[in-house]
Write a structure and sequence with these properties.
This protein is an all-alpha fold. Helix 3 packs parallel to helix 6 and helix 5 packs antiparallel against helix 6.
């Protein structure tokens, strides 16, 4: 049994593509791609929920491992791509965090909600006046 497993392993390792697919140079980045996918998906969410500390930590983490992926032998381009995407997504999240919490984004959003609510109230009041006028006309007839 051990000889069969050893022979299978030798056959897999003799083919460059299968050898790469069976290595940690492939499966590490593939499993790690969950982080950048989640980060890209989070760019559509409300900036109120962004953690500035976590965003900074993930930015440093991705920047560090982009460098590491090029320092190992052989160079791991898949790991570099994974951390490159994550780095970009985290920089975007960091910008959204700073804009929302430090550069007036929160106040602008609140003002927008206030204006929207005010416009809806004015429209409802106009509709109410129209309904009242219509009812008054019906009663007067």
């Amino acid at each position: 049994m051990a000889a069969a497993i050893s022979a299978l392993n030798a056959k897999i390792r003799s083919q460059p593509v299968l050898n790469y697919v069976c290595s940690t140079h492939f499966w590490g980045p593939v499993s790690n791609f969950g982080i950048p996918i989640a980060a890209v998906m989070d760019t559509k969410k409300d900036p109120d929920i962004i953690s500035g500390k976590m965003t900074a930590a993930l930015t440093l983490y991705s920047g560090t491992f982009m460098r590491y992926s090029m320092a190992v032998t052989p160079k791991n381009y898949l790991l570099f791509a994974c951390h490159f995407v994550n780095f970009g997504a985290q920089i975007t999240q960091g910008y959204r965090y700073m804009q929302y919490w430090h550069y007036g984004g929160k106040e602008a959003r609140a003002q927008g909600i206030l204006n929207s609510t005010k416009n809806e109230a004015v429209a409802l009041a106009a509709d109410g006046k129209e309904m009242l006028s219509s009812a008054k006309d019906k009663v007067m007839k």
